[in-house]
Design brief:
With 336 residues, the protein is an alpha+beta fold. Helices cover 32% and strands 25% of the residues. The protein has one domain. The protein is globular. It holds the Pfam family DUF5954.
Amino acid sequence: MNYDGHPVPDHLLINVEHRDDPVSAVTEDDARRRSRAYPKLLWGAPLFGTAEEVDGRWRIMSLLADWPQAARDGLGSHFRRLRSETPDSPENAAERKGYAAAFQLLDWEVVNDLTVNDRRYRIIRAQPLIRMGADGPEPPRPTDPDVAVDRQSGQAQSQMEGFVIDPTANSGLSDALLRMEMVSAFYKAGAVPDDVRGDSQQAVDTHPNVVLLPVGFTVAECDGGSWRPRSLSTYPTPQAARDAAAFRFSDIIPDEDASLDEIREAYARALEQYEAPRGDEFELNGVRCRVTRVECFVRVGPDGPEGPRPSDWDPEPPPERHFQQLREQGLMVDPD
């Protein structure tokens, strides 16, 4: 394939693979049916995480933060851990120094892209979306794996961690169509503030392709005929989402004026009575709930995945700068 007389750059490719195996055929049929039943795509608030470049591709380390600084703090913690795990010896002195310089920089400065010990790291931005139909948000598909929570770890294994952002990877037809639809998508006038819309539109030019990330699941609740997320968190399987939603702490406490002993007693009773729902539709405290499928994509450009945008909500400064501000305001004791 050529692009202006030259081979198409990797970051612009969408490779569509025709798959004849029965599982792929059923998966594609599920996707077609759901695209008709749930035709409206609604974007959620962006997620932020960390990625590292390995062999020319970017690999997700984590994708859990609601704002960029939380992801930067996580990256700083990662470098602290690497330094602590690197033996303190003369031959490792330069490596340990590189990790220390990295987390000290992140403690003070807003940095979204840095190289540490010859490896690149980046704060990345991802866009979740859900499909809506006449009856509400899209539930899990029959072909979505639905395993129970790992009882030893207390959580289902994340599919995001270690995922390689590769725009050249083969896509099924339905995923390729969604990618092509999202390539030119940006916020419409009036839907968001002008600066948010402007950044969204600019991202189409600077990061002109998208890569779909592993699907996640959450629980939505219907209140007065309108659906809203019961939790802002997403989980790797439908059952993990059911488990989390069925045991929300705010549903357990007797009332807002309850004493600590009353809260403890209520929590103990809830643990004894706890039984997570198994279906995709259920009621919690009389409220209709539905396990909801959450798709997610990241924009990519010539230099890899998109980072935070200037208009993204980022309420906190780096930690040491924040501490300094608090000390100047007399709200924190000076360590000296």
